[in-house]
Structures are given as structure tokens and as C-alpha cells.
Amino acid sequence: MAAVLALGGAVCWGAGDFLGGLASRRMAVIAVLAISQAIGLAGVLVWVVVAHEAIPGIGELLPAAAAGVAGLVGLGALYRGLAIGAMGIVAPISAASPLVGLTADAVQGTIPAALQWLGIALVLVGIATLSREPPDAGGRRIASGVGLALVAALGFGLFVVGLDAGSDESAAWAVVAARATSVSIAVVVALVLSISLRPQRGNWPLLVGIGVGDTLANVLVAIASTHGSVGIVAVLSALYPIVTVLLARLFLDERLTTPRRVGGVIAIAGAVLVAAG
Predict the structure, then answer these.
(1) What span, in angstroms and rounded, lies between the C-alpha atoms of 54 and 186?
(2) What residues form DSSP beta bridges with 132?
(3) What is the C-alpha separation between 153 and 266, in angstroms, rounded?
(4) Looking at per-residue confidence, does 82 or 233 come out higher?
């Protein structure tokens, strides 16, 4: 059951990222974030009502709120990266986020296991392979969207660290605090920049899909962690970039060179090994 739920979460995350990239090619990224995150917040509030969990104190929710800021930055960078670069390059690089949690553990005295060191090496090799442009790319050395993908990985990693710190009392309320913070900031930024939050009718299916996919993934992974090994859940849910890459191949006819396909597999495999450790 845990494996099925975790894989379901990976599918939802991967599909949501794909839709986020598509939506960001049609409208401002901050508008995509504000609307889709608001839809997701509504879904998370339903989760809290069903769970009947008491509201934790402000002190417990502050790390989760900080996680919301990091997550917003990560998603913004990811969606923009997916909009301007090849999804098959950006998505696997963003999967390097477990390295942030690993670094946080190392700072606290927890030394990475041998399997994790191997995973780190694979992630770095995969990123280098994906990032390098071929010699005939008009003088460019780094592929479009790579920098944003790295920012996304950092943001997602900090999101997990902050959410973990704020989930001691209630995981559901921690997600609510994170999502409410990200929605509030996105709306304020959109208003300050005079960006319309009224999307065209044709964009609503994308925005709803992003919000529902992200929320459903959070719920599935959270439930999966209560039914089986957290390590297994982390490994299987880390496979979400594969879904994004496959959808880009099917619907956008996105093609990558053989070295980049290999680099993507290596990067995702490295992330899985880090999570497995």
C-alpha cells in the first residue's frame, strides 16, 4: 500500500509540474503560483477538516511558514525553467533537492552513508551531463533553465527541511501553514507588480490541474509514510521527474540527445539513492 501511494504521489507531482510549465508559457509565473497554490490550499483545508487535528501553537508552525516561502521560490524557479528550457533537462536537475536535506543532517552531525555518497556523485554527474550544450549551440555552454532548476532544487530541499521541523505536532496543519504563506506572498507580489489574477478561461483547466495534483501528491505521500517505511516512500516519490519528462515527450514531442537522456537517468537515480539512505 505504501509503495502504491508513494508512486501515486510521484505521478501527481510530475503531472502538476508539467502543467505548471505549460501554464507558465501562457501567463505570468507569479499568477500561476498564486492561483494554483490557492486551489491547493483549499484542498489541504479539506484534509485538515477530515483529519480532525488540533491547531498547533505558532512556534510549531513558524518553520512550516518558512518552508512555504522556500517552496514558493522553488516552484517559481521550476515553472519558469520548464517554460524557457527543455523539461527533460530542467525536471531531473530539480530532483537534486534531497541533497539539501542531506547537508542539513551533516551540519547536525549525521554523516552521509556510503549509498548517499554514491548518490551525490551520480547527481552531480547527471547535472553536468544535462547542463552542457553541444558545441554547435551558438556559443552557449549552459542549457536554458539549468540555473532555475538548481534554484528549484534548493527551494524544494529547504521546503522539506522546514516542513519536517514544523510537523512534530501536525503534518496536516504544517502543510496548511506552508501553503497559506506561499499563497499570501504570491498574491501580494502579483498585486505589487500589477499582474492580473484573472486568467483566460482556457487556462483554468491547467491551473486547477496544478493545484489538485500538488495537493493530492502531498496527501498520498503523507498517508504512505504512515503505512510503510519512510525510506521507501521517499525513494518512490522522488521519481516524479520521470512523469514530467514522459509527458513532455508525449505531448510536446520534446526530444533529447542520447547523452542527455542518460544524464537524466543518472541524476534521478542519484536522487533516489540519496533518499534511500
Answers:
(1) 27
(2) 142
(3) 16
(4) 82
Closest CA to 190 of 40, 67, 37: 37
Contact 277/119 with Cβ under 8 angstroms? yes
Please, what's the b/e burial string for 53-79 (b: 16 or more CB within 10 A of its CB; e: otherwise)?
eeebeeebbebbbbbbbbbbbbbbbbb
Q: How many residues does the chain have?
A: 277
Going from N- to C-terminal start, the domains of the chain cover: 2-276
Q: Smallest Cα–Cα separation from 216: which of 52, 4, 5, 1?
A: 5
Report d(CA 186, CA 197) in Å as an integer: 10
> What is the predicted pLDDT for the residue at 136?
59
In order, the DSSP letters of 40-60 are: HHHHHHHHHHHHTPPPPPHHH
The more confident residue out of 181 and 60 is 181
Number of helices (H) and strands (E), helices first, in the chain? 12, 0
Give the separation between CA 173 and CA 179, rounded to whole angstroms. Answer: 10
* CA 132 and chain centroid, separation: 23
Q: Is the dihedral of CA 138, 131, 71, 69 positive or negative?
A: negative
The mean pLDDT value for 188-193 works out to 96
CA separation for the pair 163, 65 (Å, rounded): 8
Residues 6+ apart with CB under 8 A from 198: none
Record the cell numbers describing residue 137, joined without a space: 549551440
DSSP-assigned states of every residue in 109-172: T-PPPHHHHHHHHHHHHHHHHHHBPPTTSTT--B-TTHHHHHHHHHHHHHHHHHHHHT-SS-HH
Q: Are 124 and 275 in contact (CB under 8 A)?
A: no
pLDDT of residue 92: 94
